[in-house]
Amino acid sequence: MTIRQAYGPMLAQMIQDSASRRQMIRASLLLAAAEIVLLALHGDRHGPSGNLVLVCMPWVALQLWCGAFLKNAIRQNRPEYAGLVPHLRSRLIRLTAAMYAVEIALLAVMCGLVFGHPGYGLVFGGAFAVLSIFMNRYMALLWIMALAIPFGTSYVINDLPRLLAGANEAVVTAAAMVPIMLLGGWGLHLLLPRGGDDHWNWQARFSQRYAALTCAPANPSARQAPSRIKQVMQSFYLAALRRDSQRGVAPDRALMHAIGPGAHPARMIAFSLVSTLLALVIGRFLSGDARAGMTIATGLMQLGAVLMYAISVADDVVLHGAEQQLYLLTPAAPAADRINRLLVTTVLRRSLAVWLVSLACVLCLDSALTGHPSLHGVSFAMSMVVVWTVTPLLRNYAVAPARRLGVTWTVVIVFVVLVCLGAVGLLEAAPNFPWYAVGSVAGIGAVIYMSLRLRALMALPPVLPAGRLAV
User: Fold this and answer.
1) Residue-number span of the structural domain to which 314 is assigned
2) Per residue in 81-130, pLDDT tens?
3) Is residue 253 part of a domain?
4) Where are its TM segments located (predicted)?
5) Closest CA to 281 of 272, 289, 291, 271
């Protein structure tokens, strides 16, 4: 059997999956557009910013394609297929390892051409590839990464270059690549296990997670008990559910649970508070430049909590149409002419709570950086910009199909990231930029647009249950 016959069908699986292929092509086009915009902002300066943009965007695209193939390989390595296709698992492991090796090698080449350090590019690409492999197995690493990014970014930019300046690049690369290859192989063996009870359990967890992300009907026999971290994160919502299940509860509080668990803001608020506290504690032990970089990155991440809450609510509303139908049949359900007003009130009040907590966290970070109560102009402008991320929640859910707005939210996320990166670049290029005026215009525009959307929603028939008029 030739190599093409052995590995060709496995590679073709991802290409023939039209939904996955379209999603990856759209993501690649978005990254290409982001690179053009960022190079226009940073490319005129012969500094690290333009070079970093030149390398990062193609590398992120390669990471997305490797991650998509890894998930496809996990779906191919089903226990029932192991006995039908000889050497399926070993071939999938080799092919996945080869794809990641090519991605790491391309990053090393780009780092060598742009920065003159191919070895460090090889180490960084390998370390991140190993981390992404283990994040597919252990979801708790996603939360650790979300907390570590703002703290690690300042260290990588400010302190790591000085630390590596006196080191031998070849020795560091050789010493680091050995554990990276061992950990990568171990991670692939965990993601693509042999047949057995562990394989069935892992495949059931992965299928349940994949069904939740794609809104496909989950197999009832494949449902698993939630992990401890997920139980802790759900405890806030469960406490509110027990409280709001009593008699005489206000209709808007009961409606929140019919919308779905994602409408409860406690998780995002807890994440903002914990990450801000960690930033304040760690910032006391950092130097001036590292402390400033970490504070800016953490502040932008706090404002991103509003976007993540909006994504959670928008997806949950359309996925819980059946629960909304049952709730609206109960005696305690609100009248039909009050449903839209209650929905808008519930969503906006909780979004405002997340936004206010995020803004308070940014205020604390800026005040700690300056030594007195203050809110930097760029922080104020970005806090006004993220108000726009709440506007997609004000739509007619009755005609919305029961699927997540994956591509739409991807565009929004890329746009917000571009705005943040552009703001950071503009902060360096134009220190006297009128941030407060720009932020005021953005905030007033968001309020006007939401007022128009509210008026349009109030004139519509009940927008709940979600999806009842979808075609």
Assistant:
1) 226-471
2) 766 777 888 888 999 999 999 999 999 999 888 888 889 899 999 999 99
3) yes
4) 24-43, 49-70, 91-109, 141-158, 170-192, 266-286, 352-369, 375-394, 406-427, 433-452
5) 291
Number of separate helices (H) and strands (E) present in the chain: 19, 0
Cα 103 from Cα 97, distance rounded (Å): 10
Q: Is residue 440 in a domain?
A: yes
pTM for the structure as a whole: 0.70
Which token pair is 285? 């032990």
**Residue 181 binned pLDDT confidence (cut-offs 50, 70, 90):** very high
Q: What's the domain count of the chain?
A: 2
CA dihedral 184, 188, 190, 196 (to 10 degrees): -150
Q: What is the pLDDT of residue 1?
A: 67
196 torsion bin: left (phi>0), alpha (psi -120 to 50), beta (else): left
Question: Are 430 and 50 spatial neighbours (Cβ–Cβ below 8 Å)?
Answer: no
**Positive or negative, the Cα torsion across 145, 150, 151, 153?**
positive
Q: How far is it, in rounded angstroms, from Cα 253 to Cα 349?
A: 11
- Dihedral sign, CA of 331, 332, 337, 340? negative
* Nearest CA among 122, 83, 120, 85 for reference residue 9: 85
